[in-house]
Inverse folding.
């Protein structure tokens, strides 16, 4: 249940869906590869758009992209891609749809090299969430040296739509970095969650 009178980060108040996402997911560490791929796919589609636009279409994306099964997505045929480009429920951007397939293929290559994508991506923060201390939204950065490094490495590996801003948003979404402002109720709840890396 979403309690409207809670103090939250200012960006999430426009809808119950946005507040639920803020309260339940944003900033919470994610180590499951399927969920990490879901956020990677959604963040790449979000590039140039608002996150609420993607959240509103999240269930459509889930249905269109086989529950974010990267093993299936990696083998999508041209017919499947054309079907996606006709799906009004998602973002029908040709380059982004094709990048979802390419990124799934490269995601699997990283799994093969590191054992899991989680092991690879969390190594950038030494497997420990970064807790920033922004007092206001203006103090929340759009990029960081770490998101720069992740972006550079993913691009080198053939990933598309993974600029530093996209990857910083991915870090926030998957709890690699906690940017809840200091008076947000969620900020003080995260340290007690005892979410640990499988490593």
């Amino acid at each position: 249940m979403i309690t409207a009178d809670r103090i939250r980060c200012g960006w999430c108040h426009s809808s119950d869906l946005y507040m639920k996402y803020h309260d339940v997911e944003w900033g919470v560490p994610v180590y499951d590869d399927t969920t990490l791929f879901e956020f990677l796919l959604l963040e790449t589609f979000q590039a140039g758009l608002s996150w609420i636009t993607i959240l509103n279409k999240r269930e459509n994306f889930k249905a269109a992209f086989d529950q974010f099964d990267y093993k299936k997505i990696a083998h999508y045929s041209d017919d499947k891609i054309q079907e996606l480009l006709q799906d009004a429920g998602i973002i029908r951007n040709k380059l982004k749809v094709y990048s979802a397939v390419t990124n799934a293929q490269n995601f699997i290559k990283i799994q093969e090299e590191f054992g899991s994508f989680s092991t690879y991506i969390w190594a950038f923060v030494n497997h420990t969430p970064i807790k920033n201390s922004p007092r206001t939204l203006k103090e929340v950065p759009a990029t960081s040296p770490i998101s720069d490094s992740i972006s550079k490495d993913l691009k080198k590996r053939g990933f598309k739509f993974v600029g530093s801003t996209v990857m910083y948003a991915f870090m926030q979404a998957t709890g690699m970095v906690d940017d809840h402002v200091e008076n947000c109720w969620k900020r003080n709840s995260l340290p007690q969650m005892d979410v640990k890396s499988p490593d």
